[in-house]
Amino acid sequence: MLKLAAALLVCGNALAAPTVYPTGVTLYDPAKAWGQYTVFSGADRTSYLIDMNGNVVRSWPYKGFPTEVIDPAVNGGRKGHVLLQLEERKDGNQRSFGNGVNNHSIAELDWDGKQVWSWAGDKAGGHAHQHHEQERLANGNTLVLANTLHKVRGFKLDELIDDVIYEVDAKGKVVWSWLASDHLDEFGFSAEQLTLVRNTKLADYLHFNNARTLGPNKWFEQGDKRFAPDNIIVDSRQANFVAIIDKKTGKVVWNLGPNYANSELLNPFTDKDKLPRPVDQLSGQHDAKIIPQGLPGAGNILLFDNQGGSGYPAVAYQISTGASRVLEIEPSSKQIVWEYRPGNAFFSAFTSNARRLPNGNTLITEGQSGRVFQVTNKGEVVWEYVSPYFSKATEQRPANNSLYRATPVPYDWVPAGTPRSEQAVVPPAVSDFRVPH
Asked: From CA 362, how far away is CA 356, in angstroms rounded?
């Protein structure tokens, strides 16, 4: 019955959406948009690098979870290298309910698609189980967010899909690791919430979707050791919190949520202008990152607040804001200092992300609808792309073009001589757009 209800819900959502809509670049104002490439993994399980007009500059026939570009500065100057998922497990024991349970191995590919490094986990585990994040570090090692399946004392379930972070060296040896279930009392849960966590029926009880080093930042330079560049920021989609892990001790040294002092937002349209203000209820958020040095807002946290329904106890869909939103949060005061929340038409219950660009624009992935776009700091959309890459339809799920994460890529990341296009795109008035018949 539950499977039938889920299938009906998926079909109902699909039928409620428009059946015909444009794909590719639908709007581009070169005077206001930041010129760049964009990398993402399509719903067709292929990774793409596109230019500002949506032309495919390079593709790799592998899924990215995510497709992550490697900074040449930490990769011996080599340009055009990516990290992505190389292989899913096909051993007859495949499970469909985990983040990275089916992920067998990850790899580094060069510009031409040649495999130059891979990792498939240790011999005991046999699989990488990587999900949501992977980062090449300055020391040449790779930071990997992964799953591990095991029994955790005190939990009702016999087996959990726990979140684990590995640092893996060039030879595939794990040189550092961190396990989420060892730190439950550090995430900000109340005693009552911890009881709910331990009694959950969700095997994927925290569902981390982010694990990235902070990088150089003004907070550490001003003497706050919690923000050491090697420390790691994580966020839990299922439990509605963001946290910073001290790399040396493994302890959580900063957290936001899961409980918020300003948890009831009054009017979704008027209150959004009251900035700065304390962070109100996050729900199912994704991709919390420190804005890097040199970019507008450097040192603040940028995240996509899905309002997707999650928490202990659960927060309903869109209960706080009536829509998804993008937030820029000052970590010292835990206040919202910038927000993109255009209204209830902007909503993605899952996936999605946001990244700050050098001119102050923000690149946003509205993952559920396969849409990627740039907005100015005043919220004007100046570039928009809708993915034309769809999954295959099944009896349980219609075809879709959803995206997990799209990220900006500077022009100088690619090898010299790589072509690109930057022609303005002016969309037709929607009222005049017709399908000929």
From this structure: 4
Domain at 104, CATH number? 2.130.10.10
Q: Please check whether residue 204 is in contact with residue 246, taking contact to mean a CB–CB distance below 8 angstroms.
A: no
Say if strands 174-179 and 208-213 run parallel, antiparallel, or are unpaired.
Answer: unpaired
Q: Is residue 248 part of a domain?
A: yes
228 alpha-carbon distance from chain centroid: 22
- Note whether residue 320 is domain-resident: yes
H helices within 237-309, ranges in order?
none
Q: Cα separation of 82 and 238, whole Å?
A: 28
Q: Which residues of the chain have pLDDT under 50?
A: 1-15, 92-97, 266-267
Q: How many domains does the chain contain in total?
A: 1
Question: Residue 161, class by beta-carbon neighbours within 10 Å (0-12 exposed, 13-18 middle, 19+ buried)?
Answer: buried
Give the range of the structural domain holding residue 154, as residue numbers without chain letter.
26-427
List Cα–Cα distances, 313 to 6, 185, 259, in angstroms.
22, 17, 10
Give the count of beta carbons closer than 10 Å to the beta carbon of residue 125. Answer: 15
Q: What backbone phi and psi angles, to 5 degrees, belong to 226? A: -65, -20
SS3 9: helix
* Two tokens, residue 7: 């299938």
pLDDT for res 377: 97
The phi, psi pair for 310, rounded to 5°, reads: -175, 175
pTM: 0.92
pLDDT in tens, 247-286: 999 999 999 999 987 655 544 555 556 899 999 899 999 9
| pLDDT tens digits along 209-242 | 999 999 999 999 999 999 999 999 999 999 999 9
